[in-house]
Write a structure and sequence with these properties.
TPP-like; 5-stranded parallel sheet; HAD_sf; single chain; HAD family hydrolase
Amino acid sequence: MSVLVASDLDRTLIYSAAALGLTMPDLRAPRLLCVEVYESKPLSYLTETAAQLLTDLGDSAVFVPTTTRTRKQYQRINLPGPAPKYAICANGGHLLVDGVSDPGWHARVTARLADECASLAEVRDHLMSTADPLWVRKHRVAEDLFAYLVVERDLLPQDWVKELAVWAENRGWTVSLQGRKIYAVPKPLTKSAAVHEVARRTGAELTLAAGDSLLDADLLLAADRGWRPGHGELADSGWTAPTISALPERGVLAGERILREFLRAAGPTR
């Protein structure tokens, strides 16, 4: 059976220092492998055990990194094992094939966004006019597809996020709060659509997925089986579905558990 594994990266398979969740005594902490360096500083990690599991996964499945990161942000990551033939960036806006964005796919996505939801310019203007500089650290537009803010969580009014979500919903957009970032993303811009395209191209008979945030919900629902860690937006809201397994592990050990589940579900190596 041909198996496709589509997994979110940040806070699902790889973790910043702040997100590692190392609650055990120091002497029992897992050995870590750095998989991302930014501005000459280590940024993201997985456990050494997870690194081996991810390498093993390549023998039994087509592994597709599936991320909201831009292409430039994704290309900073150096995952163990062979370079994936396919990767999904910008929440489905770009389908990379051997590291290069498929222009036909990107054109289909942008045409759909133009037809089905409010413009990026309108959403960005709303963010700029309503977000308080007291708690906003950065305003960003990603790949001319969606926008996000980097905020100080301790100062962020929760009502503001709820009000933004209602405003965005009425314009065909969705809002997701992940760590220090607030994303505003067009509803038609989905990871699941890009994963369906990769499944079509590869002839996959079984699709497995994992993710931790609201932006991963459609990906998990589109898969035959899915897993979410014990942290993140989905866990905090108690979100689940019949084909989804809610794991108890939190932090970097959740990434290790997810990879074990992928390998178990994918079956013996080919």
